[in-house]
Amino acid sequence: MIAAEEGHRKQRRAGWIRFWPLLAAAAAVTVVFALDLHRLLSFEALAAHRGTLLAWVEAHGPLAAGAFVLTYAAATALSLPGGTVLTLAGGFLFGIPAGTACSVIGGTLGAVAVFLAARTALGGALRRRAGPSLDRFAEGFRRDAFSYLLVLRLVPLFPFWLVNLVPAFLGVRLGTYAAATAIGIVPGTLAFASAGAGLGTVFEAGETPDAGILLRPGVLLPLLGLAALALVPILYRRLKAGRSAP
To answer: What is the C-alpha to C-alpha distance for residues 166 and 76, in angstroms, rounded to an integer?
Structure first.
């Protein structure tokens, strides 16, 4: 009897422990908004402090790039608004190649943190509650997870935070998730970093950059084309399976 009660207590403690990443994230978000730190991730803040930021980047180089990556990762992990501003800032502060690389690394690290937290805290419980219906869907998604995730990352119609969470609930492997995320966000990040590289002119004119750059036909259509290419392996396997079926 005592052994059974001790076992139940250990299970309850283990149950609470798996929620610590989400609790820590919730506490961090509360602190960020309580101190108005989220206002620093705005175009107005970037415009106001651009001289200081440029001087700091010039003086510290790799250290500044590392700080930017960590800031981007934290903002992504906490699902804070401001990802667009950060990507523009990357192009403005570091140039197009380095700004794109820093944003991709930071965005991928933050997305992986969300994925691991959600999988640890909720993934198994959600799959058990959903039952066979989710299992069948998850199995199909996992079979072509890389291609599906690549499409979700390429097409700018799906909220980034949502795409961070869903694969965790469907049992996608970490390596597949990280690779598809890193590759899939490159085109959009490159577009924003390119726009960010020209922010000096925008600042001088007192204007606001176009945050809808990904919806321009010249940007959106190539992204949709890449998404269609990402679906080709799935269609090929489906056709091959259909032909081989009796």
So the answer is: 15
Please state, in angstroms and rounded to a whole number, the distance separating the CA atoms of residues 100 and 105. 9
Which pLDDT tens digit goes with each residue over 113-129?
Answer: 989 888 887 655 555 55
Contact 197, 91 (CB under 8 A): yes
Locate all alpha helices (DSSP H) within the chain, ordered by sequence: 2-17, 20-34, 43-48, 50-60, 62-77, 83-94, 96-118, 124-130, 132-143, 145-154, 160-169, 174-184, 186-197, 199-205, 217-244
Rounded to an integer, what distance in angstroms lies between the CA atom of residue 23 and that of residue 29? Answer: 10
Taking the model in full, what pTM does it have?
0.80
- Tens of pLDDT, residues 39-96: 888 888 888 888 999 999 999 999 999 999 999 999 999 888 888 899 999 999 999 9
